[in-house]
Amino acid sequence: MNNEEGLLRSVVQNPFDDARRLVYADWLEEQGDVRGELLRVQLELAHLDPTSDRYRELWKREKELLPKINKPWLQRIQRYTTPKPCRDITQAIPELKKFAQTSIRLHPHRMAKDRPTDESKFGGQFLWPEDEEWPSCPDCKVPLVPIVQLRKYDIPDVKFYKGTDLVQLLWCVKESAHQWHPKPALFWRKAEQVKKARTEWPDLSPERIQQIDSEAEYLVPKPCSVHPERVVVFPDLDTLRELAGKKMQEIDRKFDDFDFAGADLQERLSSQHGPNDPYGLYQYELEECSGACVGGRVPIKKGKKVFDHFLTLHSAEFGGEGFRRWLPLEDQRRIARLGKPLTAKRLFEEFDRERRLELQESTGMRLGRSQRLYMYICRQADPWTVQVRIGD
């Protein structure tokens, strides 16, 4: 492993560590490599107010640097930043603070080429021992499809099965055999114990998937890279009412008194792609993450068993009502006109539709009528039990 590959892997394996990113930037700049400047520019942009002059100045410089950068390298090291909500609702409604939770957004983005088999990803080739048979569905006798692979360093807040640092989700795509749900299987591994990785794979071509189930293509993810980011979220309104109990009356009163002053809010409210009241604002900008994420929902109970939220998969990474909040700033800068905030008209009418859909529906999966799949894990007994829910 050369110096650069070692520095790059150090950044990839410590995605929340700014210091390692800066060390790599220093080394690149010592080699006269413009990638070092890009790393510094993007890191500073992630911490700036998007309405500031400095932000616009660095945005312009980023736009000049990006055409000079190798796309596979950029995709491997890219960070994505969720915009802050337009209002800190806990200032207006302090009672909500106790219900805040941390979620890790995965920010799937289509891959220019497959990532190394031991890195986090959607689809593509997973790290699998050569001497371990590829799993099949015991009911349907068809090979399971790789959905998402996650390294512990990308989701460090999650409790992994003892002695492991890699989790892989595969499932059977024959929904008709499983009450119209994909049937999941989780595999926990220690990556370094895979001494010789598989290089041959079962036939999971589109033609084979079509043979298994005519609708199954929408349960197979397009290969995507993963770019973890911690964000603070709140329960959906129904869950909030259950948790708050009698205190919800005071919360409702403060929702009704919410101040809608401000040009940014008026732009949201006047658009057909926007919320129309404080509850809509909460739903689209403060509730659980839009898109794929790990953690952030309250546990569920089934008898004496408690299932912790593990993973949410969503057909869309952002919607028309919440794109200002959930479309990453890095993508917004590539779509918006330089120095201007991204508007609904620019995103949904002027920007190329296919390029928008690559961002909006990056994995290409469609998950039931609600377009959401929630996975929960009960860790009270060995082996751990998995519960899957489609929708709310």
General description of the model:
- The protein is of the alpha+beta class and 392 residues long.
- The protein folds into three domains: 3-77, no CATH class; 89-106 and 228-360, no CATH class; 114-222, no CATH class.
- Helices cover 32% and strands 17% of the residues.
- The protein has 15 helices and 13 strands.
- It has helices spanning 3-12, 18-30, 34-45, 53-65, 71-77, 89-92, 206-212, 237-244, 248-256, 263-270, 278-285, 323-326, 329-335, 344-350, 353-360; strands at residues 101-105, 109-110, 121-122, 145-151, 166-172, 183-189, 224-225, 229-233, 293-294, 300-302, 305-314, 372-378, 385-390.
- The strands form two sheets. Strands 1, 8, 9, 10, 11, 12 and 13 form a seven-stranded antiparallel sheet that branches. Strands 2-7-3-4-5-6 form a six-stranded antiparallel sheet, with no helix packed on it.
- A hairpin with a 6-residue loop joins strand 12 and strand 13.
- Helix 2 (18-30) packs antiparallel against helix 3.
- It is globular, with a radius of gyration of 22 Å.
- 32% of the residues are buried.
- The mean pLDDT is 91.
> What is the number of E strands?
13
Beta-strand level of the residues, as a percent range?
A: 15-25%
Structural class: alpha+beta
SSE order, one letter for each helix or strand? HHHHHHEEEEEEHEEHHHHEEEHHHHEE
How many DSSP H or I helices?
15
The dominant shape is globular
Largest sheet: 7 strands, antiparallel
Number of domains: 3
Please estimate the helix content: 25-40%
Q: What's the alpha carbon Rg, rounded to whole Å?
A: 22 Å
pLDDT averaged over residues: 91
Q: Low-confidence runs (pLDDT<50, min 5 residues)?
A: none
What's the end-to-end separation, in Å?
Answer: 47 Å
Oligomer: single chain
